[in-house]
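@channel anyone free to eyeball this complex?
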Amino acid sequence: MKKESKKNDFQLSPEEMEILKKYKKRSFLAETWRGLRKNKGAVIGLIIIALIAFVAIFADLLYDYEEVVIMPDYSATLMSPSLEHPLGTDEFGRDVLARIVHGARLSMEIALLSTAFSLSVGGIIGAYSGYLGGKFDAIVMRIMDIFLAIPNMLLALAIVAALGPNLFNLILAIAISDVPRFARILRSTVLSIKDSEYIEASKAAGARTTTIVFREIIPNCIAPIIVQASIVMAAAIIIAASLSFIGLGVQPPAPEWGAMLSSGRSYMREYNYLVLFPGLAIVITVLAFNLLGDGLRDALDPRLKR
Amino acid sequence: MAHEIPELKVENLVVEYVTEDAVVHAVNDVSFEVPKGSTMGLVGETGAGKTTTALSIMKLLPDPPAKLVSGKIEFAGEDIVPYSEKQMDALRGSTVSMVFQDPMTSLNPVLTVGDQIAEVIRRHQRVSKLEARTKAKEMLELVGISGDRAGEYPHQFSGGMKQRVIIAIALACNPKILIADEPTTALDVTIQAQVLSMMRDIKQKFDTAMILITHDLGVVADICDTVAIMYAGRIIEYGKIEEIFDDFKHPYTEGLFGSLPNLQKRHEKLKPIKGLMPDPSDLPTGCYFHPRCKYATAECAKRQPKKTYLSDTHYVECLAYEEGTGVKIEGGDIK
Amino acid sequence: MKHLKKFMLLVLAAALVLSTFAACGGDVQEKPQPSTSQEPSTGTESTGTETETTGLSRIVVIAQNNDLTTLDPHQHNDLISGNVTRMLYDTLIRLNDKNEYVPCLAQSWEYLDKNTVELKLTPDVQFHDGHVMTSEDVKYSLERQKASSFCGYLLDMITAIEIVDELTLKLTVVDESAALLSSLAHQCSSILPKEYTEKLEGEGKAFSDAPCGTGPYKFDYWNIGDECQIVRFENYFDEAYAAKNEGLKFRYIAEDNSRVIALETGEVDMILRVPSTSVASLEGNSDVKVLRFESCDLNYISPNCSGPLFSNEKLRQAIAHCIDRDAMIQVQCNGNAVPNFAPIGIAAIGYSEPATKREYDLEKAKQLLVEAGYPDGFEFTLSVWGDLNAKSAQVLQAACQQIGVKVNIEILDNSSMVDKCGGAKHDAGMDNWTANSEPDNTYRPWFSRELIGAGGYNWSCYPGEEIEALMEKALSVTDPAERQSYYTQINDFVAEHAVVWPLFSAQGMVATRSNVDGIQLYPTMMHLFQFVTVAE
Amino acid sequence: MHRYILKRLVQLIPVILGVVLIIFLIMDLTPGDPARMVLGNMASEEAIAAFREEQGLNDPLPIRYLRYVFDMLRGSLGTSYRSSRPVIDELLARFPATMQLASASIIFALVISVPIGIVSALKQNSLFDTVGMVAALLGIAMPAFWLGLILIISFSLKLDWLPSSGSGSFKHLILPAVANGVSCAANIARITRSSMLEIIRQDYIRTAKSKGIGKMKVVLKHAMGNCWIPVITVAGLQFGTMLGGTVIIENVFAWNGVGDFLLKSISAKDTPCVLGGIVMFTVVFSVVNLLVDIVYAFIDPRIKAQYQ
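replying in thread with the prediction:
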């Protein structure tokens, strides 16, 4: 906060500074945390996400990618769960647990990157659109409406189909299909706060539009953004798995959960654990994000508190 | 009057709201009677427990968290507290009806007003759909709305009209007891008068026993026969209208009257009661009113006052009227 | 009254919705309304009831893993559609199950000179529409086929077709070509009724929607994407090949497991292409039998021998030694395949076991890598057709990784594969190929130098002239043993120089209910279904 | 009302044109030569060049887009590269199957979720509520295709109760409809519960109770009457998700519908079919949303008043 006030290229009166400070986020985090802690579901979600994140970050220490995750062992193919291979092995003799662990890394990567992309692009579009209003807003929102008219999954499908299946395109496709959601949310939040006093204060002080959007409006949209982001991340994991399942996502031998399901599918008659466990990994991760999203919404949106 | 069985009798009613954090003592040992054809005003600040008392009589308390802890509620001598939900449903709308506070939200927005009136008629009277509809139109006419509008939806009516519709619903089956919970609070002053006079007319016509909940003493003066003043879940003063209006005894009642603008004594300043109602989950010891009472003494914090009967019909709960307490009321409007 | 009004509004809304679809649909009146055409037509089931009177087996239900693309024999060259069109149409010459060319629609064929062939047609052959086949029809059909981009190349050797009389034709051919007979016997070289086809197409309709031929079955119905039924043709000209069942119903069940389950539950009588993961459980099921046959299939990788990497022969040889065929067969085929080192399927004409077999040997591969000038390894992209092949690709990937070679797997669809590998834009491409009875139909598209980068199947892009020279020699002789000697030389050359990396030939497998008999299996997958019977 | 519907239909046109443009642009990035797709891998270079010229494949993008739009207005969505049949025929042949599946899924979802949502709300914080809402969270977290596989394993392979693939009978419909409908049901159950919780605290519910008409009637007539709007809104939105889901569900259950066709068209690079399929899904989705808005008017007289 100190940094920001130093960087300010305009002067504020002490009263205006007060108004501005009031809306800064320091207490925001603390308050959110307090709200979250009360919500059992959110705490469970947070713990699971932390665990998955931990596993994802230290995946390499748990299982070596080159030697375990993708290296076949033809002497140990299609082994049912045992002590040595807690979740069994696949048709290449690769340890399913090791692949799920590394799959967590992939899924988290996809969810984070695609959400970050759609959030920044959609957020900026929405914030400007809401703030500027007028024709710009009308045109941009029309375009967003058109995007929203296409079911998410189909849009992502078309993009990957056109660009070719690989990790980058997958992330891009999911990101693009989520841009309109963020744009909309940001826009409506901006509309609701743009005429409030602290924005007026900045305007009166002669701040430029860009400064106001980035410094005042976006920080104040954080609550709805966080809620939406956690929901979008959950959806991103499902869409990524779905696309990989139909061969339009991450390519083998990468241990993406959907891709694992896809190859496990031909063995589901005799070796159903091959479709059971990667699916459970998806369910648990998505569930955690949804729990957290619910909790955050309750904590951040006083109107929804019961 | 004591020999006649009153239409409604409430005895030692105690209602609590039990939540995880606290127990809210909403109604504390409330008793009163409403004879046939008479009207009792239930007066008090917001949060005094008036609506809770009314809902207890309807047995419509939100359970959980509300709990009817003890007490009797008698309709024509019959205690309905042990009644099952099914038995209650047979009474609601026919024997006892209620007019709710906010007409804007008390009607179902997706049903026509005709349907909403006919519904209660169909429930309690053996009539055909068509007859119910005709009856509903008659009820509308009775409350001063053209019967042709039975097919319209609530959003097409103004606030006052909606309240009339609600009254029509409440009276559709000629209830013996009518509870009106601040029926005019949400309305414009001119419309208040219309609705009130209408209610009075209808009440007289059907000889209904009525409880009128309000914090507006003017309204009470207009139509009530007896008045109960409620504070923090207790009736702290009860009496005939003249007894209360001309001879109130409780410091709180004094406060209530003092906070009214008085046209006759325009030169006098309003005397609002200082402070706020106590938190009903954390009631003070002794007399609940003592923290705000300008006459309070140390004694008031120690003991809860008992009912002191000043006449057959007038009682007050204040230590000042109990013997040997040493509490005195001096220098106020109380005679 | 009010309810009526509401109802009317709803009807109106529904009508509006329907009309939006109608607006997209254009000529609505010709098509059934979407809402009424939910049930597939089942009106033909009744034919099965005649079983007792005719002594024929009931309609046989066959499940395939892909949908037919067309029933026009000249507009495809795939096995899935072929299984149906082979039953609907006849060719001039028939290749029997002993690999002999025998008369069919043509009674005889004779080289009048080096460039002229005289064909005598079988008389009194009826088309399904009752019309009798003449040389007009044959000329028309062959010319129609020549114009096709799918299978016209099969008849490239025919330069002119002359009608001598009603039942005699003269074909002018480029040279005495060994491939002529096989081409005329190819499933694409079907004979259609000229008048009927011209009339149909003149009306702007597709022949595929109302096919008509001389075959043992005539068209009944085809629900696109679901099933196609053909029924016995009573007036079939060749008693020996007439249908022994009432008809055939080809069902399309894409998913492997679903197809197997459908067989196990008796929903279908036969599945073609048995998923290897299910073989064990099917063989343990007494209601079902698995028929195995040697196939002309080959799974292979074609390195781009003109490309920046694999023009280096040592490098090609190095990777050839990284191929762990046993592992691939285990992972991809569950053991139901045999290793193959030749560029053509084990059961195909033209196959020979190469003199040099580059077995899985990482030490040798490492050594070759050094000789090739890549001691520290390198990286290449393996373009793969289909998810299943990706399994073998991963086996190679893992093996290469151990000698420091990084393989990037890229799974592509068919058209992208042809675009990339056919366009010589690849490092290496992996696919499978089913050879037919004419080896030239395999070797030519694979090794003809003029096809390099032309979008076809010459994915190895080998720039040397050696293979082409042998190929031409093979074509110019008719003695089978002599031809084979040339193909043997090609196979040896390809293996020695690692022009193609053959992987394995999958076991041919068809599974049927145990009461099903009579299917005539061909290594080329061009099975005959007219003798199939179902015991009740 | 009629004018409102008409207005909405007119508003649909630019949206659909926009959707077509977006998908058109995306699909234009697809590598691969349509000409080769149509003519086969053995086609000669000349034949391909001629085909490209004839089909206008060499024209600049805007011209091709406009041509597509005009063709669309005339009821043509182009010709399939694979089958050479009109795309619209291919789509319409499979459309009933997809709608059958989608409607079955949404009906299943509504039938199961609305009662769960209501009971959960009425018995808030009870065991039923907790179990129901945990189940709903799980339902949302489950990818439909995975659930489909699990259902096949349990009900087709292990128990042998229901067919795992194909279409035709009611039995065939059960598993795909359930797999496709569960996440939708979960979402609707959640929204039903939270709207119900809000509604049963409304004054008019108290009014209804005070009439003595009984709890059932209060809930079914008064509370439900007001609950439909959020429920139907979510159902409408979920319908879009479900349409996207059919692409995979139809593949898993070998259901011969537009979704499966779309997926096969994608893997065969049959661009006109992909384009046509997505456009069709989008039109259906938009029309469903329009229907939802129209249904609002029948549920809520206040909204109806706005439409007039």
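from a first look: Chain D has two domains: 11-73, 96-256.
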